[in-house]
Amino acid sequence: MLLDNASVLIAGLAIALTVLLAVFKRWAIPTLDPLEPPLLKPRVPVIGHIISMIRERAGFYPRLFKEAHMPICTLPMLNGKLYVINSPSLIQSALRNNDVSFDPFLIEFSKGMFGLTPTLLEAISQDSLMKELLETISSTLMGESLHKLNVVALTSLIQHLNAVQAGTPFIVADSFLWIRDIVTEATTRALFGEMNPFTAEHIPHLWTFDKSAALLAIDIAPSLIAGSSIAARKKLNDILSPYYEAKYDQRPDTSDLMRRRGRILRREGIGAKDLGIQELLIPWVGTTNTAPTLFWLLSQIFSRPDYLLRVRDEVAAITSIEDGLGKRIAELDSSLLEKQCPVLNACYHESLRVYVHSVGNRRIMKDTRIQDSDGREYLLKKGTNVQWPPMVTHFIDSAWGEDPAIFNPERFLNATVQDVKNRRGAFLPFGGGKHLCPGRKFAVTEIVGFVGLLALGFEAEGLSLPESTDPIFGGAPRQPLWKNQDPGFQLRRRPGWEDVVWSTKIFSASEYGGVSEGLGGPPENRKAIRTPGEDSGLMPICSSTDGPHFTWEL
Ligand code: HEM
């Protein structure tokens, strides 16, 4: 009888365990429709992918791709799932699909990242206001408003070149930090005007904030996992609030972008303190990718004498020299940088490919399908998040050939029609689709203009090209890894350019199509001056078929 009781107990336990396991499995491993992307299970059930994502950062995605080689897969995450797309043609299909959207993240990410107050949350949760704020960003990052930003930012960067005395080298102790700080100063000066609150002592706070900004976006135990970022954010809020309190954003020397956004948010009843919280977004997006990209471009060009010479010739051709009072004035025509400097642009695009890897994030708004170039369809289910990793697509053989790990600008100079076709959906430094980075034209002028002038008029003795490490969690650009290298260099004027005062050409509104505050007409008209095709999320790919210039191809 005793034995019988024990057997019944064991049998009962076994049944309970089986049921528990089945429930756990059902809970932990999502059930998939046969048309959904195939499942890629983690080594450690339930939390394995999440732990790997945090531990391996952007390197997680190429590791998975190397192991499983799946064009698209479903990752089980806790009791949910995430789609990861590696195939460029599927990414392109997703970027064109209106049911694959970034919109929910605009609020979800911002809430934790910027510490939005209930007032701000309520305001930006109105679709019409969010749309208006985004539209303001894109319309003021083009035409004359963009030109004003470019002139102020380049002029600020150029001041550092003019300060270099003939015959006396300027010592840069740490090239990454030097570039980081002067780019942040130039960009924030262009955005916020003469009363720019981002003075030298506050600039490092923006970068401390950036280090864990993506962790803040997750909004789980923020003070525990990102305390220093929160402290830095507070310091930045504290310098921005008085700026808004004094209404400096409405001064004529403030960018159209910040002025118009300030006006819209005030109209919605947002006060100075909340403006100081909300508007941190703009200097953050405006600097944290631009500065590292500039660093990589500079280091690459200066460590390759052949490219340095070719870039010098191109920039010399668009820089005019005039005699001033005892000095020669060298004036760069920045409007010609994109069209007349193919080698410089090829080096820029190659730097973006090799070093800038912002993971794309979207959510499926209702059940939908995407299709690859062979016609294979996948079902994506409502409510699931989707990611695509440039760390995979920027190095995928099908798009870049056999040497994707090598820095080779020629791939952008000599691209065939087939190359251009193969790269669609693979080159994603600025994301794509409806949310394609609206600041890319501002960034390109700062980056390419400043590096071009450095190449033309300066030598950088001791500037080395470090190895790179994966981007910080949720970040885009790779970071320098100096090992035993000296991070600094000496900047000196090149022979023949000792007496030159550097400057950048300023155009009138009419030369820039007259798009400015009050001049541009309705937003629909302003969109029309975008480069054709850009709205569909199309990537800049150099094509040799129509001459050596850059086009924005589908
Ligand atoms: C090399 C420099 C830059 C890089 C690599 C870069 C990259 C990106 C990427 C990957 C996205 C996400 C796009 C997507 O999800 O499809 C983005 C969005 C954005 N970027 Fe940039 N960016 C740069 C410079 C700038 C600058 C200078 C500004 C403005 C001053 C700016 C403003 C924005 C804004 C406002 C968004 C959000 C757009 C939206 O959600 O509609 N970016 N950027």
TrEMBL record:
GO MF annotation, one: heme binding
UniProt cofactor(s): heme
Keyword Metal-binding: yes
Keyword Metal-binding tagged: yes
One of the Pfam families matching this protein, by short name: p450
Keywords (A to Z) from UniProt: Heme, Iron, Metal-binding, Monooxygenase, Oxidoreductase
Gene3D superfamilies (alphabetical): Cytochrome P450 (1.10.630.10)
Domain of life: Eukaryota
Family statement: Belongs to the cytochrome P450 family.
Name assigned to this protein: Cytochrome P450
Originating organism: Cylindrodendrum hubeiense
